[in-house]
Amino acid sequence: MNPIEQFQKETRENIARLGEDKNLQALSLQWLSCIGAPKYTHNFSWMGRPIIQLPQDIIAIQEVIWAVKPDLIIETGIAHGGSLVFSASMLALLDLCEATERGEFLDPSKPKRKVVGVDIDIRAHNWAAINEHPMASRIEMIQGSSIDPKVIRQVHAAAASSKRVLVCLDSNHTHDHVLAELEAYAPLTSVGSYCIVLDTLIEDLPKDIFPDRPWGPGDNPKTAVWEYLKSHPEFSIDKSIDHKLLISVAPDGYLLRR
Ligand SMILES: C[S@@+](CC[C@H](N)C(=O)[O-])C[C@H]1O[C@@H](n2cnc3c(N)ncnc32)[C@H](O)[C@@H]1O
Known about the structure:
With 258 residues, the protein is of the alpha/beta class. The protein has nine helices and nine strands. Strands 5-4-3-6-7-9-8 form a seven-stranded mixed β-sheet, sandwiched between helices. A two-stranded antiparallel sheet has the order 1-2.
């Protein structure tokens, strides 16, 4: 075994051990239970745009994007655009790597890989800032509810010519809404790619954390994932991602399509 394989083997074993470490898992959940009130997930940005995610999940999604090498990423829930810009920047790097490998010139005005984002309420200042961003040429935004049949048709049309699609769901976090999103968009996930469902963590947090929200324990993205998986054996939860992260808003939310 060469040193690279040795390192990878040790890391896999380490992650498997973390999957058994109930103490560390409980401590991580305790920490996660305390970060809602100070809005910890609002603290970060990607290339200047606020990204409402934990840094751990951003790294995990980066690993997924690198492994899958999608040509299209579909996202529901845009907010300030940080996750869209993150995805677009990863896709720009993939295009650059591919062009470099082939010895081709990369024409920045003709991006190959793209991201499509859907949000029911794209505020004017966010719309403008995203459109003015250097990554804008890779970003298509659709305003409307992600479960509106017209919006679903638009997203499917955008995906029609794509070979490898990754999906990220991060909009309204009720069970019914996420289940409807899964029905609408998970089938677009390519074999070997992921449908990532964010904020499944809600199921594991105390009920009183969400006094003014329609979601909470028993009604959230994780319950929707569990329901969806009952009739969709082509998807399975990639537990190794949960085990490596410990700190994540998406436990049971990294769904691998086989
Ligand atoms: C958690 S934020 C998204 C954060 C973003 N993905 C990021 O990482 O920065 C949730 C977004 O979902 C949007 N949203 C709520 N209900 C929606 C719906 N029915 N369809 C589409 N978007 C919706 C909200 O307007 C809000 O911008």
